[in-house]
Amino acid sequence: MSNSGFLSEVIDNNDLEWYLTIEEDRGLAYDSKVFIDKFESRVSDLFSKSKLKYVSVDVFDTILFRNGKSEIRRFYEIADLISSSEICVNKKITTLDIFMARIDSTKVTYRASNTIDGCREGSLIDIYQQICFILGIEQKYIDEFIDIEIRYEIDNLKANFGLWEILKNYKNNGVKIVFLSDMYMHGKHIKKILNHFFFDFDNVVIKVVSSADEVISKHSGKIYKKLKSDFKWPSKNWLHLGDNHHSDVVQAKRNGINSIHLPINNQTLIEQEECRNRFYTFFKSKSISNGYLI
What we know:
Strand 6 (238-242), helix 14 and strand 7 form a beta-alpha-beta unit. This protein is an alpha/beta fold. The two termini are 28 Å apart. The chain contains 16 helices and seven strands. The strands form two sheets. A five-stranded parallel β-sheet has the order 5-4-1-6-7, with helices on both faces. A two-stranded antiparallel sheet has the order 2-3. Helix 4 packs across helix 8 (142-156). Helices cover 56% and strands 10% of the residues.
């Protein structure tokens, strides 16, 4: 399949990837017998000579689905919610003020963050500390603002219950499960979102690992090495699942870990690209360039 620059590319050209990219409704796709049969067949092939004992799973766009909103729109809508807080209303801080502070703070805190093993990562706590500094807001409001962002995420995410049922069956058969995320949200924030969608989450997943806490990431491949060391998981018994081909497939395989690519469907990617372009046009009307927003 050719790539239009933002659509999912079927790298391995297998039935499972293809099926997930062309289905318009991701929830229905994962609930279908077609997906279950294709997925179980892949797992059987991968573990024909070894036993599946450990599974790691990406969070956003794998176990939790994002909608057709672009990241830039999400940031703007979160800023709009924060602008309605009492402190912002009293200080006459606008949505655009908060949004621009978010963009600046994300860049500043990333550049200023400490490196571990050559890696850097953003931190939601650091970002809001900087936002408050820029806008002249007391640091005591950080938790309130983060809670607003978490509630926004909950309202704009959907649970992948089809995959969750598969994971629960694995757990009932003795498989140990962790969730991994390359994300500026810390593990405790991500876990709060997951607990909202999955009432039995703590009985199924032993840990949520975020690059915001570890700094090293799936993208660098180094988080896999750390987990192998921390959990003493042999690679031959380990399966990783995720939507990003580089982070969730290439880097997992480089660490000897079996992986299955669960790409985002093209319909969602098209909607996100259209949304991104609309917002770039909106910001251009306010003399804010695309380059500044990236």
